[in-house]
Amino acid sequence: MIPGQFDYHRPASLAEAVHLMATLGEDARALAGGHSLIPMMKLRLATPAHLIDLGGIGALKGIRRDGDHIVIGATTTQHDLLASAPIAEALPVLQEASRLIADPQVRYLGTIGGNVANGDPGNDMPAVMMALGANYRLEGEGGAREVPAAEFYQGAYFTALEPGELLTAVVIPVPPAGHGFAYEKLKRKVGDYATAAAAVVLTMAGGRVATCRIGLTNLAEVPLLADAAAQAVIGTDLDDASLQRAAAAAMAIMQPAADGRGSPDYRRHVGGIMVQRALKRAAARAS
Amino acid sequence: MNDMTPTREEREARLEGMGCKRKRVEDIRFTQGKGNYVDDVKLPGMLHGDFVRSPHAHARVKAINTEAALKVPGVLAVITAETLKTVNLAWMPTLAGDVQMVLADGKVLFQNQEVAFVVATDRYAADDGINAVEVEYEPLPPLVDPFKAMAPDAPVLREDIKDKSDGAHGPRKHYNHIFEWTVGDKDLTDVAFRKAEVTIKELISYQRVHPSPLETCQCVCSFDKIKGELTIWGTFQAPHVIRTVVALIAKLPEQKIHVISPDIGGGFGNKVGAYPGYICAAVASIVTGKPVKWVEDRMENLTTTSFARDYHMTTEIAATKEGKVTGLRVHVLADHGAFDACADPSKWPAGFFNIVTGSYDFPTAHLAVDGVYTNKAPGGVAYRCSFRVTEAAYCIERGMDILAQKLNMDPAELRLKNFVRPEQFPYHSALGWEYDSGDYHTAMTKAMETVDYAGLRREQAARREAFKRGETREIMGIGVSFFTEIVGAGPSKNCDILGIAMFDSCEIRLHPTGAGIARMGTKSQGQGHETTWAQIIATEIGIPADNIMVEEGNTDTAPYGLGTYGSRSTPVAGAAIAMAARKIKAKAQMIAAYKLEVHEDDLEWDIDGFRVKGLPEKFLGMKDICWLAYNSPPPGMEPGLEAVSYYDPPNMTYPFGAYICVMDIDVDTGVYKVRRFYALDDCGTRINPMIIEGQVHGGLTEAFAIAMGQEIHYDEAGNVLGGSFMDFFLPTAVETPHWETDFTVTPSPHHPIGAKGVGESPNVGGVPAFSNAVNDAFSFLGSVHIQMPHDFWRNWQAAKDLGLIREPAAA
């Protein structure tokens, strides 16, 4: 439980960080909250030769409104999200999800950028970002680009990030006023990853679902956008048959691993239940 | 008397003696981060050791190449079995009469087994060194399932003893067999089963778990070459035993070994045994001439040093149609891992599992335990219980519920019908114990009335109907458990560890100003001895508890004792404390008689001093007696006021209790909610009610963890799963239920103050209460027994196996 040798860098600007990432190559890892990386280093499952601490870059931290988008800097912590009035008003689902991440001590350090960029299927924010239709801003020496959350994840710990690139911000379209939302997470205990979790963002019109997006956490080696499940409820009043159809459609794309949380059968089953519960709760909140 | 004279109540209160909710004096340092633990010991020039461990469950070690490791900056030495052979320490004796590899000698027998010990100037260098050691393995077929251990074609695990027909506990039936232990009358029991109107038979397994104390196992060893003395600071629950064992195996004179247990961050049985880390650190210190520290990390702790349980108990009960039990037959298959390193008194290979008749008047019983080797970590410690008592309590308490179900009888009613009755005490059980005292009916009845048991059953009946009608997906379980513990090991006639009788001790030395110091052979790991031991002395000899300093854990200053585990401290050392105090009191009475110019027999004890009978104004307080004892003792009497007592208990003590758990389970997710948990404990005389309540809270929380989630699981290849707190269930305050505590008081008739011990009762009684609640919830659907742990997944699986789970309709 002791990490190997590494060099530590603390750049003061994004340009400097990006330059370090480019020059140090694959031996370098960016360090934000460290809650995924440092345990991996202690187990020597990760042995980076260089750690580039992003904590000294002011521009990477903070929440701002940019037209009809909210832009959250990569080193903004889960605690910052919970304390933010603009987030409370525009993106309350982020607060609901943040409260289900680990415990207060972890949330003081754990960042939104680290949570979405690491590619750990157990992280909660990627599914929420998919449900919100968020984009990730990626910056390298070659410039900046935006990639939709729904296209970012390629495999466990494999993402669209190119070598030398940093995820610098999450850009989220502000959902319409009166939208409904829910993040339903089944876990064994405080601090655990999800056995199964579902994020729902929807709007209602005349008692029926007008728009809906559903994200799934820890039910495959990547977070999932459950399109067919969402389609199954659009236009319905979320009657029991529609909810069951949505659950069945979501379960059809789940491929959970067997682990201490349960068998694949169990995780898929409760995944379906999380979808139904999230839909019901989101609808009840919508106006 | 004037107005300033304290009243009797004020004098009593000032003592803070037995029965007082005295605040824990040790918490001042613990809550401020000022404790002094092993890892706080930092000596000049101290080196750090760490282990290369096996990735395989079973493999031959073909070669160990240490060359690259020795080139790592800071690495000073790499110790292997070959090094240890030069000092005859490649293997060490276990507490159970077996031997255990200190470092892999030719093969490895469990994953994470210690293979080499790297010694370096700091922990970082040591870890770098570990990664540079090259070990060549040839994998062998692993033996994981204990039920296959004695198959004719099972892999040979212990090549060192494969041809030995006898083990430490008699004949062996197979090369992977360790012992068979039988108790009771087989023939009579067979007759009882033949004649029985009703019988049950069920395999009840108690999964492998781990005590997982907050502080892991660790030590610092420092060998002084000039003096030839070895000092060991360690997380030892039994420091004197460690000193003796070191003297015996390292061939050092015992007076030149100093064992110090500083503050200990929880033990729960994990810190009773001797581990390879201790031996390697000691050898490394002798080799390098410098102090060497070894500190386990969490994964090492969970996967190597001392698991608990892993008992597979085939349980049979015979009874009449009316529900009167007539016989008990239990066979246990005990998975001991790669070496038999159980921490039991030496003559008890399955601990006190023969308490398995529990609180019930079984006319006859028979027990057989087979211990086997598997490719798993060694251990088998008493995790917050007396030796194998929690396994026994789980076995009988599940068995009684299964019998009740078969008889269609209420489980509480079945228990009441079969309890040992108050007039039967001292009660001789069919498996050989003499229960000292008990009043089971009173305790059970009080518990049932407090929770409105009849009302709960009515609610449950209504909710079961609602479930059947499809109105709810929640089922309700009521778990009843009534346990009898056996603690206070133990009487020298049947208890020893490696030949050392299991007495305990106390030395009290009073100072001239009415204060004093007391030392014991026990060692607190969080139990609060510094608080409670002083309370016993305060009541016995009238010196305020605040004026008594309690010191434990230094073998140079403390009298010899067998340490703290198995709830033995109060039954054994607690008695020694009272007996030492009474010796002091007897001398104090002589001093008082001389000073008050009366005969000793004319004095009576009055809270904090002696009073002349019939002359209430003639009084001499203990504070004054202390001064006189040193400065003007009666002519012919030695000055001073101190005493030592070594106490060999005449019998064990038998705490008991009634626990009731109410739980709701959502069958669709398996998620449970503990709605209510009521725990009534009878531990005899209560020394500090606040500490008792804290002990019960802690023990129940561990019981909850075990029943509802903990498991050290191995896959088919022998890879250990659940080796971190990500997967090994350690509940937080969020998951932990609310505890309601209660008590009755049935003093032990043979203990000087009537106390029985309580620390482990809540674990012993708690596990079956939780498991019975889960099983009771499912019982109306046709389920008989669901194995632990009852985590969400397994609860759902149980519901699925009963056909209760529906997949959502796709169209």
Features:
heterodimer; A: 287 residues; Uridine Diphospho-n-acetylenolpyruvylglucosamine Reductase, domain 2; Enolase-like, domain 1; 3 domains; five-stranded antiparallel sheet; 12 helices; globular; B: Aldehyde Oxidoreductase, domain 4; Aldehyde Oxidoreductase, domain 3; Aldehyde Oxidoreductase, domain 4; seven-stranded mixed sheet
Q: Could you characterize what this model shows?
A:
The complex is a heterodimer of chains A (287) and B (811). Chain A is of the alpha+beta class and 287 residues long. Chain A has three domains: 7-52, Uridine Diphospho-n-acetylenolpyruvylglucosamine Reductase, domain 2 (2-Layer Sandwich); 60-173, Uridine Diphospho-n-acetylenolpyruvylglucosamine Reductase, domain 3, CATH 3.30.465; 180-285, Enolase-like, domain 1 (2-Layer Sandwich). Chain A is 36% helix and 26% strand. Chain A has twelve helices and 14 strands. In chain A, the strands form four sheets. Chain A has a five-stranded antiparallel beta sheet with strand order 4-5-10-6-7. A four-stranded antiparallel beta sheet of chain A has the order 11-12-13-14, sandwiched between helices. A three-stranded parallel beta sheet of chain A has the order 1-3-2, with helices on one face. In chain A, helix 10 packs antiparallel against helix 11 (240-253) and helix 11 (240-253) crosses helix 12 (264-285). The relative contact order of chain A is 0.12. The model of chain A has no long low-confidence stretch (mean pLDDT 96). The relative contact order of chain B is 0.12. Chain B folds into three domains: 8-35 and 504-647, 2-Layer Sandwich (Aldehyde Oxidoreductase, domain 4); 38-140 and 216-264 and 271-303, Aldehyde Oxidoreductase, domain 3 (Alpha-Beta Complex), CATH 3.90.1170.50; 389-489 and 652-801, Aldehyde Oxidoreductase, domain 4, CATH 3.30.365.10. Chain B contains 19 helices and 37 strands. Chain B has a seven-stranded mixed beta sheet with strand order 3-7-1-16-13-14-15, sandwiched between helices. In chain B, strands 11, 12, 17, 18, 19 and 20 form a six-stranded mixed beta sheet that branches. The longest helix of chain B has 28 residues, at 569-596. Chain B is 28% helix and 25% strand. In chain B, helix 7 links the parallel strand 14 (229-234) and strand 15. Chain B is α+β, with helices and mostly antiparallel strands. The model of chain B has no long low-confidence stretch (mean pLDDT 97).
